[in-house]
Design brief:
Sulfotransfer_4; 11 helices; two-stranded parallel ribbon; mainly alpha; P-loop_NTPase; three-stranded parallel sheet; Sulfotransferase family protein; 5 strands; Rossmann fold
Length: 212
């Protein structure tokens, strides 16, 4: 049963916050890697993206929280399906967010529109949810992409009651997140994971992008 619905775009600190949620007992946390590790799971997401009626318990019944895409694309539907769950909105400076997205996810995406049979299922899900569904195929237009990002923040703030919404910046550390979730503050540093440099280094080592 979901207790936390993530409404944030990727590259806002979601990997760090995922580890934090799991440390606080709100795991397992669903994130994009699930598309890469479970082909049947990716196929089910593709069915939903194609307009199929979602079975959220089938997709997310084994998880206690979600973070980033693909689930964040359906944050409204998930918030309605799990009315007792908190809605988590991670906030990052828009310019810094766009720079990170450009250097990481956008730089390593397969070229396509998400309908090509040559793309694997997971890549079709990501292309159609993120690059086409969220950014309308215009992520390279910086002003457009940042406008979409800002609009997402406003939409979540407007739609979710203040008592249910958790607006959080990872640099603020454990205390505000723990207070919002009613959890004890761990005796450990707040996680820092999957930084832009780490992502680029892994992509270079895997041969996905050429080293600079």
């Amino acid at each position: 049963m979901l207790k936390v619905v993530g409404a944030s775009f990727g590259r806002t600190g979601t990997s760090s916050v995922r580890l934090a949620l799991e440390t606080l007992g709100f795991g397992p946390c669903h994130y994009m890697k699930e598309l890469f590790t479970d082909p049947a799971h990716a196929e089910e997401w593709l069915r939903v993206v194609d307009g199929g009626r979602p079975d959220w318990e089938r997709l997310l019944g084994d998880f206690t929280s979600t973070i980033a895409w693909p689930a964040a694309f359906f944050w409204r539907e998930l918030a309605a399906a799990y009315p007792e769950a908190k809605v988590l909105l991670i906030v990052r400076d828009p310019d810094s967010w766009y720079a990170s997205m450009s250097r990481t996810l956008y730089r390593t995406r397969p070229v396509g529109t998400g309908t090509e049979p040559s793309l694997g299922v997971r890549d079709r899900v990501i292309e159609r949810i993120v690059w086409q569904g969220t950014f309308s195929g215009r992520f390279a237009d910086r002003e457009h992409a940042i406008g979409v990002y800002r609009a997402q923040l406003d939409e979540v703030r407007d739609a979710v009651p203040s008592g249910r919404l958790i607006e959080f910046t990872p640099s603020s550390g454990w205390k505000p997140l723990c207070a919002a979730l009613g959890a004890d503050v761990p005796d450990a540093p707040f996680p820092v994971a999957n930084t832009t440099d780490e992502y680029v280094r892994r992509a270079e080592q895997a041969g996905v992008i050429a080293p600079r």
